[in-house]
Amino acid sequence: AQSVTQLGSHVSVSEGALVLLRCNYSSSVPPYLFWYVQYPNQGLQLLLKYTTGATLVKGINGFEAEFKKSETSFHLTKPSAHMSDAAEYFCAVSDSNYQLIWGAGTKLIIKP
Amino acid sequence: DAGITQSPRHKVTETGTPVTLRCHQTENHRYMYWYRQDPGHGLRLIHYSYGVKDTDKGEVSDGYSVSRSKTEDFLLTLESATSSQTSVYFCAIRKMGQRSLYGYTFGSGTRLTVV
């Protein structure tokens, strides 16, 4: 069965530094891969989605993610962190029935 | 998010009492989901629905029941609340295109405390 692993429950970066949040899936290439963001006391919002085509996907707020089939990865990056990026980030993949399988989440902490 | 609302936003209840949480959508989507979110566990699926009166269990369904008598409403009931059910509960709807998945849209959550 498909599973999703997010490396690091907490990631801390300095303001202006590169953000890298890691996500790996376990089995066959899923039809869809997602990143969601959750700001404090809010629901989850879609950040970006990959299905087919270009493996580098651009999302909102300057984030992007690259699908690498050979590494079964879908890591999220942003060149320069901003204080407003502090949130929890969730990676998810869909199965063949469009049910989402979720990673455990990574809290991004931005140091001033 | 526009199109999906959860009520109440906050609730404190006593152990052993029944509690019902409501999820309401305005966009006529077929699939609706209930999740709970706890530190260190991410999102865990409780139940989901794929149409009126059509529901199925998720990975943490024990102690919960659901009902969907109308397309727009999906209710989650804790039959007899326990302290282990203290959590934040999220409802989500699955948005589909023609044979494609747009994604899931989430409500703002219900923070439930069982004392």
Give a structural overview.
The complex is a heterodimer of chains A (112) and B (115). By secondary structure, chain A is mainly β. Chain A is built from no helices and 11 strands. The radius of gyration of chain A is 13 Å and the shape is globular. The termini of chain A are far apart. The mean pLDDT of chain A is 94. With 115 residues, chain B is mainly beta. Chain B is 0% helix and 63% strand. Chain B is built from no helices and 11 strands. Chain B has strands at residues 4-7, 10-13, 19-25, 32-38, 42-51, 54-57, 64-70, 73-78, 87-97, 100-106, 110-114. In chain B, strands 2, 4, 5, 6, 9, 10 and 11 form a 7-stranded mixed beta sheet that branches. In chain B, strands 1-3-8-7 form a 4-stranded antiparallel beta sheet, with no helix packed on it. The mean pLDDT of chain B is 94. At the A-B interface, strand 5 of A face strand 5, strand 9 and strand 10 of B.
Layout: helices, strands, pairs:
The complex is a heterodimer of chains A (112) and B (115).
Chain A lengths: L3 E4 L2 E5 L4 E7 L7 E6 L5 E7 L5 E3 L5 E5 L4 E6 L8 E8 L5 E3 L3 E6 L1
Parallel strand pairs in A: 2-11
Antiparallel strand pairs in A: 1-3, 3-8, 4-5, 4-9, 6-7, 7-8, 9-10, 9-11
Chain B lengths: L3 E4 L2 E4 L5 E7 L6 E7 L3 E10 L2 E4 L6 E7 L2 E6 L8 E11 L2 E7 L3 E5 L1
Parallel strand pairs in B: 2-11
Antiparallel strand pairs in B: 1-3, 3-8, 4-5, 4-9, 5-6, 7-8, 9-10, 9-11
In short:
The complex is a heterodimer of chains A (112) and B (115). Chain A is mainly beta and 112 residues long.
Any descriptors?
heterodimer; A: 112 residues; mainly beta; six-stranded mixed beta sheet; 11 strands; 0% helix; B: 115 residues; seven-stranded mixed beta sheet; four-stranded antiparallel beta sheet; globular
